[in-house]
Amino acid sequence: MINQLVFAYFAVVILFSAIMTISRRNPIHSVLFMLLLFFHIAGVFVLLNAEFLAAVQLIVYAGAILILYLFVVMLLQVDRETKSSRANRFWPWLTAFGVIIATEIALLVLRGSFPGENGVMMRTMPGTGVKELGIELYSKYLVPFEIASVLLLVGLIGAVLLAKKDAKE
Amino acid sequence: MSESHQLLNIAWRVLLFLVPALALVAFILANAMYLQLMERKVLAHMQSRLGPMRTGWHGVLQPIADAVKFLFKEDVIPAKADKWVFSIAPLMLLIMAFGSMVIIPFGPPTDFFGILSHKVPMLVSNLNIGVLYILAFASVGTYGVIMAGWASNNKYAFMGGFRSAAQMISYEIPMAFAIVTVVLMAGSLNLTDIVNAQQGRWFLFTPLGPVVFFLYLLAGIAETNRVPFDLPEAESELVAGYFTEYSGIRFGIFYMAEYMNMMVVSLLVSIMFLGGWLPVQIFPHALAGVAPIVWLNKALAAIPPTLWLLAKLYFFIFFYMWLRATLPRYRYDQLMAISWKTLLPLSLCVLVASAFMKQLGWI
Question: What is the interface pTM, i.e. ipTM, of the complex?
Answer without folding.
Answer: 0.79
